[in-house]
């Protein structure tokens, strides 16, 4: 299992979700991806994308205008 970081700061919808999707395609089931964004919409968009695509949101956090989501790649990666 590996953990990778995706910097999606200063990107607006739908780019953070698209970048997340592209990154997950390069990862293996069980891997974790930490996404850091500045668009507050990702707090709904990325978890919804995860539910549709079989990935698991492990944690979310908001601090000083940044939004952090940690997901675990599912078998549908």
Describe this protein's structure.
With 77 residues, the protein is of the alpha+beta class. It has one domain (3-72): TusA-like domain (Translation Initiation Factor IF3). It is built from two helices and four strands, in the order E-H-E-H-E-E. The chain has helices at 15-25, 42-53; strands at residues 3-8, 32-37, 56-63, 66-72. The chain has a four-stranded mixed β-sheet, with helices on one face. Strand 1, helix 1 (15-25) and strand 2 form a beta-alpha-beta unit. The longest helix is centred in the middle third of the chain and has 12 residues, at 42-53. The protein is globular, with a radius of gyration of 11 Å.
Element layout with pairings:
Elements: E1 3-8, H1 15-25, E2 32-37, H2 42-53, E3 56-63, E4 66-72
Parallel strand pairs: 1-2
Antiparallel strand pairs: 2-4, 3-4
Across the major sheet, the strand order is 1-2-4-3
What share of residues is helical?
A: 25-40%
SS elements, strand count: 4
N/C terminus separation: 14 Å
Could you describe the largest sheet, including whether it forms a barrel? 4 strands, mixed
Number of domains: 1
Sheet-strand content, in percent, reads 35-45%
Q: Count the helices. How many?
A: 2
Name a few traits of the molecule.
77 residues, alpha+beta, Translation Initiation Factor IF3, 4-stranded mixed sheet, 2 helices, 4 strands, 30% helix, 35% strand
């Amino acid at each position: 299992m590996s953990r990778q970081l995706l910097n999606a700061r200063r990107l607006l919808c739908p780019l953070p979700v698209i970048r997340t999707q592209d990154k997950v395609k390069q990862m293996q089931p069980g891997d974790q991806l930490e996404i850091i964004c500045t668009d507050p919409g990702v707090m709904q968009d990325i978890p919804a994308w995860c539910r549709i695509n079989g990935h698991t949101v492990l944690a979310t956090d908001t601090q000083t205008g940044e939004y952090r989501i940690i997901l675990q790649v599912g078998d549908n990666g």
